[in-house]
Amino acid sequence: MKLAIRNNHKLLVLGTFLCMGLLSGCGTSGDGDEQEAPLFEKFPPGRTGVTFSNKITSGRSFNVNDFPYLYNGGGVAAGDINNDGLPDLYLSGNMVSSRLYLNKGNFEFEDITESSGTTTSGWAGGVSMVDINHDGYLDIYVSVSGPADRAPGERENLLFINNGDETFTEKAGEYGLADPGFTTHAAFVDYDLDGDLDVYLINNFPGTFSRDNRSGLRPEINDGTSESTDALYRNNGNGTFADVSRQAGILREGYSLGLAVTDINRDGYPDIYVSNDVQPDDLLYINNGDGTFTDRAADYFKHTSYAGMGADIGDVNNDGWPDILQVDMLPPLLKDQKRVTGAVSYDYMQRQQQQGYQRQYTQNTLQLSNGTDRNNNVVFSEIGQLSGVAATGWSWASLFGDYDNDGWDDIMITNGYPKAANDYDYLIALNQSTMFGSDSTREQKVYEMLDELEGYESPNYFFKNNRDLTFTDVSVKWGFREPSFSYGAAHADLDNDGDLDLVVNNMNAGAGIYANRADTLNPFHYLGIELRGDSLNTFGIGARVSVTAGGETQSAAFWPYRGYQSTTEATRMQFGLGEADRVDSLEVRWPDGRYQLLTDLEADRDITLRHENSRDASRPGTPPGQAQFFAEVDDLGIDYRHRENQYVDFNNEPLLPRMLSRLGPGAATGDVHNNGRRDLFLGGAAGEAGRLFIQQPDGTFRQSDHEQPWQEDASREDTGALFFDANGDGAMDLYVVSGGNSYSPASDRLQDRLYLNSGDGRFVKTDNMLPDMYTSGSAVKAADYDGDGDRDLFVAGRHVPGRYPSPAKSYILRNEGSGFTDVTAEAAPGLVEPGLVTDAEWVDFNGDGTLDLVVTGIWMPVSFFENNGGEFQNVTAGLGLDEQSGWWQSIRKADLDGDGDMDFVVGNLGCNIEYSAPGRGSIHLLDHDFDDNGRREAITAVGKDGRYEPLHGMHSMERQFRGMTRRIPSFEAYGESSLADMFGEQKVGEAGHRQANYFATSVLMNRGDGQFAMKSLPNEAQLSPVHDILVSDINGDDHPDIITAGNLYHPNPEITRSDAGNGLILLGDGEGHFNPVSPFKSGFVAPYNARSLAMMHTRRGRYILVVNNDGELQVFKSTIRQP
Fold it and tell me: Per the record's keyword annotation, is Membrane included, yes or no (predicted)?
């Protein structure tokens, strides 16, 4: 078997541009004016003198089957060990000695390993530089691991103490740091703020890893007894360290590969993030300020990477809150993804949850911090797909750095692996090879297969920050074309020219030394900062620096232990300034809380900040809530939680893009007593009745005391609701839309319901006022479309249960006074089966004085139906909107630009999910009876020119089409196959075909000439699907603002769930432009599976209610005084 994966960055860049810039509406603001010459120039060993190669030797007696970490690589540290102003290099070796190189200037280095006494003979991995004895010279701490059977004395960590004369003495035992715990990396951190540096070690025991690979899912060990538990050593202040792991709460196991430290919640205490490989959860140890930590990963993250590798912390949007990048192993090309992913079922994911594991997915994750909520918990949004950095192959190091000095963090990622050990074809063949034969023949066969197996070899990645939460792959443009197996990486200004050069530890090849040419190619400026701390923390590790220049403020804390097993420049920070040639202000907050401020500084130089020049200041706590508009409260007395049933759609329809049984609850507001106070109906899931809450005179709510008829309808799913006067008696009646996916399409549980108000808040169910309507619906909207003085209805059909994507029937119901008549066929033939409709608005969009209808739906454009004398005609194409087919979720009408006509806000899928990911372009849905079993199946695919390739993995296709593996002989063949290859050209040609090419939540601006302009909202509005929208003046400036909410918690199990939404307020300027306000600043934090929004005015104030699927109601009170 031969397998080699090589990535073509040039094609990926093109695909990203086509999807994000032209097709999907998910645009970027990349300027494209970078230099013609590559930003980086690689220097060969003959030029630099750096001849190190991390050579790995394997054979039949010792290979990756025996030692799973054989190819986990080494790290690199950059730091000035002799205080001559030039950063030196230390590269770790696994089966060869690590090497120390002295920087002689001009990218020339001298190997002083032997003379310095820094050779290694153990399995060296992580490298950390620190002045551990406070003498002003950097020491070197080397993390050591090795095979599981290696004796403790062979895997003790090393501490090389700098003698000040370019020699070192190993003293780990003397300091109490000769830990034998299979350490991957170490970070020095003053966690208890007593002034000296302690050390955190991440450990990774290969024996447990191998056992878990064989045995599968098991409960985590979180009592500190696992051999893969990390360690925390406290500095005793006398030149020794003590293991305080258990006392400090470091108890959770993990196959730790990535380590990053910073003050995540900005309370003044350093926190610790650990990226864990495969099943064990990643860790986010929040410092409690009393010498202990609490893992809050499950509270702060909605999901993480599955095979977490390296990690780093930066600030991608310059908002002052630390963001986290974690890399994984997802290939960038779909055909290669199909060879290594797609085996996870919904049942397996549920069992993971039952065992206590967090949600994990195979992709790089970028956790965007939104600040804190009302409980001072950090609110993250995972935006790997939106940002364009989710898939970079088998990745190792991840580094934030401003490589072009434009003032914004870019991203560098290393990748590669010499053996494609996760390839499904290889794993199946390996399993089959061990079923027969003698022990010796099986062993020989296993080794032969491994020997023939090639690997993943790819150029490393660089992503340029587009300043809008997205990144552009500039790997080729910046000079990274050479495939390699690359691991640890560190950046440093090796030649003191004001830009970040790069050093990479490669396996079985020379180390990569890359000179950054930003100083000559870009017109940008920089400021270098060297920190000189107090006597116990010589180089100011943990200090936080903020730089303001050219109207932008950047903030970063000095933690050099980053990426993967590496230390970036250990005594220096650098800030790119873009075109600003002066720094307006520079602030530093030292770890002990002391403060320093400098103003009006010249750029393009290094400055030294000394702790002795700082002043006392109160220790910073978590920044106080800056909520400008709302505060989450619980003062309305509404005790409500929606509880879903446990029906699993994928058991019957494995290829569904998402669950269709979890579309509720519907909600409605209306004055049911005609007393001037609006009341609230909240729908229930199947098995749970809806509830009516009556507003009291004091503005609170109480559940209705009356026995209501919908309690008898608890078996139905309430997906939409509306209060309106159905029979003209002046009382608010209640219409409830029924939906779901667990019923037969002919089930009476799909019948909508109309409850008439007797006038005193008691409702009576009508049995004869509605026609038979066996449709799974989504929404109901009322208006007098025929001008006869009563309220008619549009009811949106969402889907046909069990028959996705058969178009559901929607209804126009004409109010006859005594009941409603279905007039859809004669009044609006195009609405009989328009598609999978999600929402609608009645509106006079053409200004002729009659109400028209605009509907949204899945696999369709926002569709405009013009009312011509009571008959509705689809005029979408004439408005120029028929080409923008999306997964539209919601719509609201409003005059957004103050010109007197109606515009629209339309909620879409967003740009942060695989369906709309960069490089995808359009997605397609083809349905046919592909396997001749009498039922039509729907396959989501990508492609063009008639060639469609399924997005689904082979395991999912096999669950839908039994016998698929007999037709397709391998995962490799499956990755290369089109639907025509699988089912034949004829069936594909005959298949029903739907397409979606526009995924951005947008505004539709009425141009006043009968045309509309589609304009996507900022990327902050694209983090998740938008299931509901409010338009209101939030800040009191008389301009309409937008409030959105939504997530998608139950997509197909092959798809990362879309949970990055935290609710969003966008402030309007009155001219149709909208600017997002972060949840931290707005106070509106709605991070759950939001389905409906409602605005309520009571005597107590103005409120926004967020109705969540399978969750509690959230209530937000306006803090803006209303006129």
Answer: no
* One-character DSSP codes across 103-160: EEETTEEEE-HHHHT----SEEEEEEEE-TTSSSS-EEEEEEE--TTS-GGGS--EEE
Structure tokens that stand for 1028 in this block: 């509901």
Burial 79-117 (b: 16+ CB within 10 A, else e): bbbbeeebbbbbbbbbbbbbbbbbbeeebebebbbeebb
Q: Which amino acid is at 703?
A: Q
**Low-confidence winner among 136-150, 563-577, 594-608, 916-930 (lowest mean pLDDT):** 916-930
Q: Is the pLDDT of residue 4 over 90?
A: no
Q: Are 621 and 267 spatial neighbours (Cβ–Cβ below 8 Å)?
A: yes
Task: Convert the pLDDT of each residue in 539-590 to its tens digit.
Answer: 999 999 999 999 999 999 999 999 999 999 999 999 999 999 999 999 999 9
Domain 44-420+455-530 sits in which CATH superfamily?
Answer: YVTN repeat-like/Quinoprotein amine dehydrogenase (2.130.10.10)
Q: What is the DSSP string of 482-528?
A: --B-EEEEEEE-TTSSSS-EEEEEEBSSBPEEEEE-HHHH---EEEE
Per the CB < 8 A criterion, the answer to whether 576 and 402 are in contact is yes
| Strand 283-287 with 271-277, pairing | antiparallel
Token output for 1096: 């309520």
Question: DSSP assignment, residue 611?
Answer: G
Rg, the chain, Cα only:
31
pLDDT, one tens digit per residue, over 802-848 is 999 999 999 999 999 999 999 999 999 999 999 999 999 999 999 99
Tell me the two tokens of residue 357: 């594991």
Pick 688 or 32 by higher pLDDT. Answer: 688
- What is the structure's pLDDT at 207? 87
Mark residue 448 as left, alpha or beta (left: phi above 0; alpha: psi -120 to 50; beta: remaining): alpha
pLDDT for the residue 1065? 98
Cis before 332 (ω within 30): no
| Contact of 516 with 500, CB cutoff 8 Å | yes
**Residues 204, 205, 206: CA angle, nearest 5 degrees:** 110
Give me 181's structure tokens: 């715990």
How confident is the model over 142-171, as pLDDT tens digits?
A: 999 999 999 999 999 999 999 999 999 999
Element (H, E) at 414: strand 410-415
Query: What's the rounded Cα separation, in Å, for the pair 1061 and 712?
Result: 35
For residue 1081, give the 3-state DSSP assignment.
helix
User: What sign has the CA pseudo-torsion 27, 30, 33, 36?
Assistant: negative
490 dihedral zone (left: phi>0; alpha: psi -120 to 50; beta)? beta
Range from 16-20, 170-174, 179-183, 439-443 carrying the lowest mean pLDDT = 16-20
Interatomic CA distance for residues 531 and 542, integer angstroms? 10
Between the alpha carbon of residue 234 and those of residues 145, 191, 229, 241, 630, the distances in Å are 22, 8, 16, 5, 43
CA distance 770 to 750: 13
- Please state whether 133 falls in left (phi above 0), alpha (psi between -120 and 50) or beta: alpha
CATH 2.130.10.10 in the chain is located at 44-420+455-530, 630-916+997-1118
Burial class (CB in 10 A: 0-12, 13-18, 19+), 59: exposed
Burial of residue 648 (CB within 10 Å: 0-12, 13-18, 19+) is: middle
The amino acid at residue 504 is V
| Top-tier CATH class for 630-916+997-1118 | mainly beta
Q: Which residues contact 648 (CB under 8 A, 6 or more apart)?
A: 346, 347, 659
Which pLDDT does position 1121 carry in this prediction? 75
User: Residue 369 in 3-state DSSP?
Assistant: strand
**Mean pLDDT in residue range 1054-1077:** 97
Rounded Cα gap, residues 696 and 677, in angstroms: 8
Strands (DSSP E) along 214-270, which ranges?
231-235, 241-243, 255-262
